[in-house]
Amino acid sequence: MTKTDTETDRRGFLKLAGLGTVAGGAALVAGDKAVEAAESTKSQSGYRETDHVKKYYELAKF
Description:
This protein has helices spanning 3-44, 51-60. The protein is mainly alpha-helical.
């Protein structure tokens, strides 16, 4: 193996390592946003006893 081959291999490795770091960071950010979206959807759905529901129960004598 010559010195040029070694330098080329090192450069290729560093390029791939840099791309891997960027891709990993992007995956973390995208994953966090997906979790936040799922949690916000979960908290908005379902039964909630609001003021107007309480008023209906009071008037209907439930």
